[in-house]
Amino acid sequence: MATAKFSVLLLLLAFLICMADGQGLKVGFYKKTCPKVETIVKKTMDKVMAVAPSLGGPLLRMHFHDCFVRGCDGSILLNSTQNSQAEKDSFPNLSLRGYQIIDRAKSAVEKACPGVVSCADIVALVARDATVALKGPSWKVETGRRDGRVSISTEALTNLPSPFSNITTLIQGWQQKGLSRKDLVVLSGGHTIGTSHCGAFTNRLYNFTGKGDTDPSLDSNYIVNLKKKCKPNDQTTLVQMDPGSFKTFDKNYYTLVAKRRGLFQSDSALLNDSKTRIYVKHQAEHFKSSFFKDFGVSMVKMGRVGVLTGSAGEIRKVCSRIN
Ligand code: HEM
Ligand SMILES: *[C@@H]1O[C@H](CO)[C@@H](O)[C@H](O)[C@H]1NC(C)=O
Ligand SMILES: *[C@@H]1O[C@H](CO)[C@@H](O)[C@H](O)[C@H]1NC(C)=O
Ligand SMILES: *[C@@H]1O[C@H](CO)[C@@H](O)[C@H](O)[C@H]1NC(C)=O
Ligand SMILES: *[C@@H]1O[C@H](CO)[C@@H](O)[C@H](O)[C@H]1NC(C)=O
Ligand SMILES: CC(=O)N[C@H]1CO[C@H](CO)[C@@H](O)[C@@H]1O
């Protein structure tokens, strides 16, 4: 009798701990099994970022793309096979790069503790370290994710937000992932670093509604600038999203959006909802900004989306293929 009561109590306790951790994730999950993992990943990233800081953008973006499709389960890293086309080879992957950096970090980690650390966790750690290397905020990354065994190209199209989305579609898409309007406006701030292909926004410059017009929600002086960089139908030229400081993680994204200079319709759309608009204006206008702290909080939240934990999934040996 007493033992039964005790086991119920234990079960309840285990359940509560699980809930508080965000479905089994926790900071320092590998403390006993791979105590050096974060140091090893950081060392790899420090080396990479010292010579190729432009990889910071795609490596931050990679965690986002992983989490929005089948949860943060490393499915973005899987190669296509003969029978199935993977997320990697879908249209929105365009310009995602840096897969070899994940592989490099994974190899280094495998040397120290083989078969212990998931590729999904490495992606999450790399996103943080990339942000820090570009002078952005740091946050404590929860670990304990397991790797998925499935990656389907078409799921990237249906789950990833499009740069042509309006605010209603964006809010709905984020809500479906359990993320709020605040998370949306905060994490869009990731666009303070990196570059975009012209194709993601030229519709706003040349033929917005099919009448040879421009997007009225984009600053007309800015349009003149952008037209110099992107000719109609140019899909390949790269443009800095936060011109002048695209290799520095700062709060300037909000200054741009507030001035109607957000590059994508999805950036400008943040001015079309009262809550996201207030956040944009606040970050733009106040010297003392909460953005850095908010970014860490929302990244941790995004890092919990749809994760596999416990004995679900696997720990991949090589990040680009299932075991
Ligand atoms: C709100 C929904 C979002 C949309 C519609 C969106 C869309 C895009 C698009 C179209 C690009 C340009 C890709 C290219 O043409 O090369 C881009 C780049 C980027 N995005 Fe987002 N994004 C969103 C949210 C996020 C989030 C949540 C993050 C991370 C926290 C993020 C981080 C980045 C970064 C760092 C780049 C630059 C990549 C590079 O330098 O290659 N984005 N995004
Ligand atoms: C996955 O594809 C990349 C790029 O094509 C290649 O370098 C890598 O070796 C592939 N991985 C596996 C396990 O075949
Ligand atoms: C937002 O976009 C969706 C999908 O394209 C569309 O159905 C909806 O009418 C748009 N909403 C507004 C307010 O423009
Ligand atoms: C603008 O779009 C309309 C409708 O899609 C098309 O008929 C027209 O040729 C386009 N104009 C230019 C300059 O591309
Ligand atoms: C914002 O809303 C206005 C009016 O409803 C609309 O004309 C405009 O296209 C919207 N802008 C964006 C970027 O969604
Ligand atoms: C980096 C990468 O894997 N890019 C692929 C994205 O998807 C297209 C197909 O839509 C491939 O051609 C690219 O190689």
Automatic annotation (TrEMBL):
Cofactor needs: heme b; Ca(2+)
BP GO terms, sorted: hydrogen peroxide catabolic process; response to oxidative stress
Disulfide bonds: C34-C113, C67-C72, C119-C319, C198-C230
Entry keyword Disulfide bond: yes
Enzyme Commission numbers on file: 1.11.1.7
Database matches in InterPro entries: Haem_peroxidase, Haem_peroxidase_sf, Peroxidase_pln, Peroxidases_AS, Peroxidases_heam-ligand_BS, Secretory_peroxidase
Residues holding Ca(2+) 2: T192, D242, D250
Active site per database record: H65
Annotated positions binding substrate: P161
Catalytic activity: 2 a phenolic donor + H2O2 = 2 a phenolic radical donor + 2 H2O
SUPFAM superfamilies: Heme-dependent peroxidases (SSF48113)
Annotated GO MF terms: heme binding; lactoperoxidase activity; metal ion binding
Binding site for heme b: H191
Location relative to the cell: Secreted
Ion transport is among the record's keywords: no
Membrane-spanning ranges: none
Gene Ontology cellular component list: extracellular region
Main location: secreted
Binding site for Ca(2+) 1: D66, V69, G71, D73, S75, E87
Signal peptide positions on this chain: 1-22
Residues at the site labelled Transition state stabilizer: R61
Residue ranges constituting the Plant heme peroxidase family profile domain according to the UniProt record: 24-323
Biological role: Removal of H(2)O(2), oxidation of toxic reductants, biosynthesis and degradation of lignin, suberization, auxin catabolism, response to environmental stresses such as wounding, pathogen attack and oxidative stress. These functions might be dependent on each isozyme/isoform in each plant tissue.
Protein family per UniProt: Belongs to the peroxidase family. Classical plant (class III) peroxidase subfamily.
Record protein name field: Peroxidase
Taxon lineage: Eukaryota, Viridiplantae, Streptophyta, Embryophyta, Tracheophyta
